[in-house]
Amino acid sequence: MAEEVISDFDRTLSRFAYNGKPCPSSYNILDDSKIISEECREKLKALLHQYYPIEIDPQRTAKEKAPHMVEWWTKAHDLLCQQKIQKSQIAQVVRESNAMLREGYKTFFNTLHQNNIPLFIFSAGIGDVLEEIVRQRKVFHPNIHVVSNYMDFDEDVEEQRERYMASYDIVLEKDETLDVVNGLLQHILHQGDGVETWGS
């Protein structure tokens, strides 16, 4: 049996679509929610139209795309910070969204938990949102460890932005060797948080 399971979240553990309709990513859940102003939503949409063609451009290398993706992510995050979202609003936003986990998710999450296998979710999305999705499906077990971008709701907007940007930048790293992910995993495993490593 596996020592641990490592997974992405958006469109990996969560559904890409259901009944022909796209399901939102953890970022889309906030973008499309009622707590985001119409003005902010329009600005986020404009950023999507500007930067998404660059992201999917087959003529550009990952190195060429990277500064544009950093710029997009930074601008979008600044807009979300200006909305002054409250932590208490996250649960409601998730409940009102069309976010769904993949078919068979209960068996997947529960089997790992029952067999004491750690599940590490590395996500470039919003950790507060993705945790709430899993929690509302009643499968957020103690063996789950999330490495993602978290919002610090108790600080002013500028401090919040700086802390968020300084947390985990795996969203900006195209690392097909998985060196970054494996490095973070080893760091977490050796923090003495009670996670057992087998066969090491």
From TrEMBL:
It comes from the Eukaryota. GO terms for molecular function: 5'-nucleotidase activity; magnesium ion binding; nucleotide binding. GO terms for cellular component: cytoplasm. One of its GO terms (biological process) is nucleotide metabolic process. Its main location: cytoplasm. It catalyses: a ribonucleoside 5'-phosphate + H2O = a ribonucleoside + phosphate; N(7)-methyl-GMP + H2O = N(7)-methylguanosine + phosphate; CMP + H2O = cytidine + phosphate. Coiled coil: none annotated. The keyword GTP-binding does not apply. Keywords: Cytoplasm, Hydrolase, Magnesium, Metal-binding, Nucleotide metabolism, Nucleotide-binding. It is found in: Cytoplasm. The keyword Transferase does not apply. Belongs to the pyrimidine 5'-nucleotidase family. Monomer. Specifically hydrolyzes 7-methylguanosine monophosphate (m(7)GMP) to 7-methylguanosine and inorganic phosphate. The specific activity for m(7)GMP may protect cells against undesired salvage of m(7)GMP and its incorporation into nucleic acids. Also has weak activity for CMP. UMP and purine nucleotides are poor substrates. This is 5'-nucleotidase, cytosolic IIIB. The lineage of its organism: Eukaryota, Metazoa, Chordata, Craniata, Vertebrata.
